[in-house]
Write a structure and sequence with these properties.
Length: 156
């Protein structure tokens, strides 16, 4: 390490749990917006903002994991490559569900339809987060990945 350089020590297990918690809260806020909103234009605009923020954050989280975190884990723990493949498949499925949600918001779908989309995203997202945490938190306790947590796990 050169002068002025410093290795960033990141508790990746803590960061992952923190980001998952924030994404869960962002989804809850979005669901409350649907439950409280009327199908009138202002409520739709507000929902569009909530949805866009949530969808963007969740997508960035998964893209960062696929790009930075999972390759670092696979290099050090080849026994987890199959687990990482399943997690990437979940990311793809969640991306598909988010596209459907965004399309429904864009065409001002009914609150009932929007809630069905959000329920689907919530179910897969929660299952995915729990599996990911069960499989990776122990490994993340000792992962020495010198990267910005926001770049790897998404900004929130």
């Amino acid at each position: 390490m050169g002068e002025g350089e410093q290795t960033r020590l990141v508790a990746w297990s803590r960061e992952l749990r923190r980001v998952h918690g924030r994404l869960r809260e962002a989804l809850a806020v979005t669901r409350r917006a649907v439950a409280d909103g009327e199908p009138a234009e202002p409520a739709t605009r507000d929902l569009l903002l909530f949805c866009h923020g949530f969808c963007t954050a969740l997508t960035a989280h998964h893209e960062g994991e696929d790009r930075d975190l999972f390759p670092a884990i696979a290099e050090l723990h080849p026994e987890l490559r199959e687990t990482l493949r399943y997690l990437r498949q979940d990311h793809s499925m969640i991306g598909y569900l988010l596209t459907g949600l965004q399309a429904a918001v864009g065409r001002s779908a009914s609150p009932e339809e929007l809630d069905r989309h959000l329920e689907g995203v919530a179910a897969i997202m929660e299952s995915h987060f729990r599996y990911e945490e069960r499989q990776l938190l122990t490994v993340l306790e000792t992962l020495a990945l010198d990267a910005d947590p926001e770049a790897v796990l998404g900004p929130l």
